[in-house]
Amino acid sequence: MEEVIKIKGNKLLKGAVDISGSKNLCVALLPAALLAQDIVTIHNIPPISDVYNLIDILEVLNARVIYKDDVLIIDSSNIKYSDLTIETMHKLRASYYFYSVMLGLFKKLKTYGIGGCRLGSRPIDLHLKAFEILGVIINSNDDTYEFDGAKMHKARIVFEKSSVGATINTLLLATQIKGKTIIENAAQEPEITELIKYLKQMGADIYQSESTIVIDGGKKMHGTEFTNIPDRIEAGTYALIGAAVGDKLKIRNIVIEHIQSLLDIFDVLEVNYRIEKNNLIVSKSKIKKGIVILTSPYPGFPTDLQQPLTTFLSVNKGTSVIIESIYDNRFAHIKELNRMGANIQTTNMNIIIHGVEELNGTVVSGKDLRGAASLVLAGLMAKGETIVSGLEYINRGYENMIKKLKKLHAKIELSLLNIEENEDEK
Ligand code: UD1
Fold first, then answer.
1. With contact defined as beta carbons under 8 Å apart, do 423 and 45 qualify?
2. 420: pLDDT confidence band, cut at 50, 70 and 90?
3. Do 159 and 198 form a contact (C-beta atoms < 8 A)?
4. pLDDT in tens, 123-167
5. Which of 136, 245, 259, 335 has the fewest CB atoms found within 10 Å of its own CB?
6. Are strands 385-389 and 2-8 parallel, antiparallel or unpaired?
7. What CA–CA distances, in Å, run from 162 to 103, 130, 273?
8. What is the pLDDT of residues 307-346, one digit of tens each?
9. Of residues 339, 336, 306, the one with CA closest to residue 324
């Protein structure tokens, strides 16, 4: 038996939803707290499974962690080296931020590789190349890396591609290497700007100007208190839910600027929304035309919203194209949407969405975090009953999605499904 989400769709949602703290920022804030070797307090940390896995790793390294309500206190004054050849490293992709932090603090690390959603090839070559340019010697075999940082030195790193993870890993390591390290073609996502703010509060010397980051490393770092930003992908997901099935749905506590690329799309599609300070109010809008969208690094339209946007555009009068330029296989949701009556094709990296009148509920299977969320949106839009599997993915990145949707009057609940039956039906 598998725990699944059961949705009775085609119902208007109203009320207000509070957006939680950013997943992609907090997965960097937690490992980076170790650099203080002191007490760090972080507010607005969402209770998602990635956070619990990172806490497990922090505790392996002898940090003391208290997590109550949404406040996380990490005391790393007695941090001790330990190999990270532990299964938890496989449970999320961002566990690789411990690579740079441990190398910075202990000049060595033996560790397992990482996990994360399967979205096609997700190499970490840019991270490893940057480490090597900073003087790290890397030995890897199968799933184990041995990093030797005894001879690390400052360097100038020019990324051939904008990468959030590689920028963060390089930045974290450079704070522990004496002298000025320069990163060019660095990613510019808001999570990076905020991480820099946090590291500066901890005593690091960092200067960021557009895609250039200069780190004057080797400064003594210390404890701090910091507040995580709202999650722009959760905000965008609920904004799309509002545009599909909202009745003045209020999305509270967001940074409007962080979802501007989605609002630009709303403007073109004439979605009915308004902004009230840090809140967005969105209502169901009939979409009468197609649109062409390219996913790209910030401030472009985020790949993480490609999946819910695909669902939203599936019920439409026109034909839309989304060019997925970041991941070569972020398409697992499409087959499932088509099983619900959507008419979507993929060719290479293009998603071609021929709008249909309506979706119909059935049993669908979520295969990754945002893909599973996009199927929940499909269930909310569809006629009849939809059963979505892949709850474990949703719990990686969305705080209490079912509880939040219930509060908005969605007919949604957890249920048990016999997996074999599920397979038979497909
Ligand atoms: C981060 C986000 C993720 C988002 C992605 C793109 C976190 C925890 N996750 O992931 O939600 O989908 O940014 O906005 O912040 N690449 C390489 N080699 C590397 C690293 C990346 O080729 O060593 C490629 C990737 O395959 C991808 C592109 O670069 O095509 C961007 O990836 P990157 O920005 O690194 O994504 P993540 O940091 O993994």
1. no
2. low
3. no
4. 899 999 999 999 999 999 888 999 999 999 999 999 999 999 999
5. 335
6. antiparallel
7. 23, 13, 32
8. 999 999 999 999 999 999 999 888 989 999 999 999 999 9
9. 306
Q: How far is the centre of ligand 1, averaged over its atoms, from the C-alpha of 163 (Å)?
A: 5
- Please, where are the H alpha helices in 219-349? 232-245, 260-269, 306-314, 332-339
Separation of first and last alpha carbons in the chain: 16
Q: What percent of the chain has pLDDT over 90?
A: 90
CB 163 within 8 Å of CB 151: no
Catalytic positions, please?
117
Q: Output the CA–CA distances (angstroms, integers) from residue 349 to 237, 256, 328, in the order listed.
A: 22, 29, 6
Q: How far is 280 from 242, CA to CA, in rounded Å?
A: 10
Q: Are the CB atoms for 4 and 416 separated by under 8 Å?
A: yes
Spatial CA neighbour of 235 closest among 54, 404, 50: 404
Stretch 248-275: mean pLDDT: 98
Residue 116 has pLDDT above 90, yes or no: no
Q: What number does the ligand 1 atom closest to the CA of 187 have?
A: 34
Amino acid at 392: E
Q: b or e along 164-183 (b: 16 or more beta carbons within 10 Å of the residue's beta carbon)?
A: bbbbbbbbbbbbbbeeebbb
**Ligand 1, pocket residues at CB < 6 Å:** 24, 27, 93-94, 122-127, 161, 163-166, 187, 302-304, 326-327
- The three-class DSSP label of residue 25 is helix
pLDDT band of 122, cuts 50, 70, 90: confident
> What's the 165 CA to ligand 1 centre distance in angstroms?
6
- pLDDT bracket for residue 426 (50, 70, 90): very low
